[in-house]
Amino acid sequence: MPGLDTIIPEFEEGRLIVVESGADPAKSYFVRRIALTAHREGWPVTFVTSRDRRELEMQLAAEAGEHPWNEAEMTIVEQDSVRELEGLGGLGGLLAVDSFSFLTLDTGGPAVAHLLRNLRSVGRDQRTTIVLATDRGMFDPRTAAIVSHLADGVLEFHAKEGPEGLLRFMRVPKWFDGRIMDRNIHYEFDGKRIAVDLRRRVL
Fold it and tell me: How far is CA 29 from CA 121, 125, 157, in A?
C-alpha cells in the first residue's frame, strides 16, 4: 500500500498484530489485502470470518486482481465463537481473523488473555503471523487493555467528519520494534485502495 512502509516495516513472522477501527470498511479491506499479499508470496493463509463466507470469497476474488486466490492455499473458516481458534495458530503462514472482538463477545477478560497467550506461543513456535481485526467499543475496558498488552503491535484506523468531509487517519500506538507512531497519519480510502499521505497534517 502506498506510503505504508514509511510508517511500519513488514510484518515479522510469528507476531500477533491487532488492527482496530470503528464502523469503517477500511479495516476489513486492510486485513484482506494482507491475506492476499501473503497468499501471493506463497504463504499458507487461514482466514477466519464471523460474517458470510460467500461474501468474503466474492470480496477476495474482486480484490485479487491478476493474482486470483487459490482455495487450496487459502482456507476460509466461518466461525461464531473463539472455541476453535486456538488450534489454528499452528498452521503456519498467516492467520487472519475478522472480527476477533465479535467472536469474543461471550468470553471474559481472563479467557481472552489465555487465548492470546496460547496464540502468541504457538504462533512463534510455528512462525505463524496472526492478524486480529477488532471493532472499537466491543471490548469492555479490561479486555481492551488485555488485548493491547498482549499484542505485539496495534494499528488503529480512525475516521471523523471534518470541514471538508470525512477525514481518515491511522495511529500506531504500539509496534514490536519499539517504535511508537503516536500521531495521526492521514490516509485515503476509496473502497479499492488505501494510500497513506504523510504530507497532510491531521489535528
Answer: 27, 28, 11
pLDDT higher than threshold 70 for residue 201: no
pTM value is 0.90
Q: Nearest Cα to 168, choosing from 195, 192, 138, 133?
A: 195
More confident residue, 163 or 149: 149
Burial 99-125 (b: 16+ CB within 10 A, else e): bbbbbbeeeebeebbebbeebbebbbe
Neighbouring residues of 80: CB distance < 8 A, sequence distance ≥ 6:
50, 103
Report domain extents, the chain: 14-158
Topology given in CATH for the domain delimited by 14-158? Rossmann fold (3.40.50)
The per-residue pLDDT for range 83-136, each reduced to its tens digit, is 777 677 667 899 999 989 998 988 888 999 999 999 999 889 988 999 999 999
Per-residue confidence at 50, pLDDT binned at 50, 70, 90?
A: confident
